[in-house]
Amino acid sequence: MAKPLPGASSVAIGERAAMLVTGSTLITPFTEAIMQRLSVNADLPAATILPTGTGKGVKAFCQGIGIGTPDVVAVSRRMRHREFEECKANGVTDVIEIQIGYEALVVISRLDDPISLSLDDFYQGIAEELPEGDEFLKNKHNTWSDIRPALPTTAISYILPSRDLGARGFFSDRFLQGACRNIYEIKSIYDAAERVKQCVELRDDNRIVEVGVPFVENVRAALQAAKPGTVAVTSYRHAQELSDVARLVVFDGFMPSYETIANRQYDFTRPLYYYVKRAHVKDYMGNGPVLGLREFITEVTRESTLGPDGYLAEIGLVPMSAAERERVRYNALYLQTYSH
Questions:
Q1: Is 280 exposed, middle or buried (0-12, 13-18, 19+ CB in 10 A)?
Q2: Which residues contact residue 305 at a Cβ distance below 8 angstroms, ignoring those fewer than 6 apart?
Q3: Residues 309, 97, 8, CA angle at the centre, nearest 5°?
Q4: 340: confidence class by pLDDT, cuts 50, 70, 90
Q5: Which of 100, 106, 104 lies closest to 312, judged by CA?
Q6: What fold does the segment set 104-269 form as a domain?
């Protein structure tokens, strides 16, 4: 059995009494629940939680080592290679990756406005250009029924996460580029950068509203002001919070649910992560800059936290398999560092 690695860097970077956590707004309720447990069970000072969104959170996390920077970033997707390279360039070289479970990106509509969409329907409505013959022309679809006669005659309109939220990157990867994999004319573009650009460019004729933090409140307001035919992209957990004004859309053949997300029948699922600066973790002698990070890692990886009967599942987390949870627990408790 390998021995746990020492936690803290010997670099003099100051000390701070409470943890500083930033990042994904989606993960904030999970973070708050974990910190509440720690404040009671480990008698730790209240952590500072800054729900900035994934993109801004990772940028702050990667600014460097020291008590002026976050100890933990919550990310609603895996950290990207270029982000990790930025971390390393700023001296953040040892990062502990902790996957906590899964979530899903779903499509919702107003309660009084039911609709079912395929991935292709969704893309045909939102793309800036669509193939016609040997060229790409401006999207001319005005109503959903222009795409497919069986769809409603209501006007096409979208509410999307803003570009600094983790959901937006996942949306681009799985909704847009996922749809393009089935479009021959786009697949045939030889240059990869041009192919992606052609795929992900969205129409600019006032049919798309982008919303940021506070996300749920902004989506709610946008839906209440929206015309019939509007669909919004949000997380499954946020959709539950919006159930008084919105309904889930059957999307690409499946109704998103706890079961279809957990068994991966619903295709648009994503992993959720915490990343912890190893250099900020106190060692077993109590040396190190930030109190509580080792206890945080232990609490996050408990079965009573991450498991199917854990307290995070009660507030919307979709658990990993038993084997995944065991792997995450081992790597985190032994402070194994992330590599991309």
A1: buried
A2: 34, 37, 299, 311, 312
A3: 115
A4: low
A5: 100
A6: D-Maltodextrin-Binding Protein; domain 2 (3.40.190)
**Three-class secondary structure of residue 125 per DSSP:** helix
R_g of the chain, CA atoms, integer Å:
22
User: Does the predicted model carry a pTM greater than 0.70?
Assistant: yes
Residue pLDDT, tens place only, 125-148: 999 999 998 899 999 999 999 999
Q: Take residue 83 and report the two structure tokens written for it.
A: 């982000």
- The predicted model gives 142-158 an average pLDDT of 98
Strand blocks (E) in 133-279: 135-138, 157-161, 208-211, 230-235, 246-248, 269-277
List % helix, strand, coil for the chain (3-state, nearest 5). 35, 20, 40
20-103+270-333 and 104-269 have identical folds: yes
| Mean pLDDT of the residues in the chain | 93
Rounded to an integer, what distance in angstroms lies between the CA atom of residue 76 and that of residue 107? 17
Cα dihedral value 212, 54, 57, 315, nearest 10: 90
CATH code for 20-103+270-333? 3.40.190.10
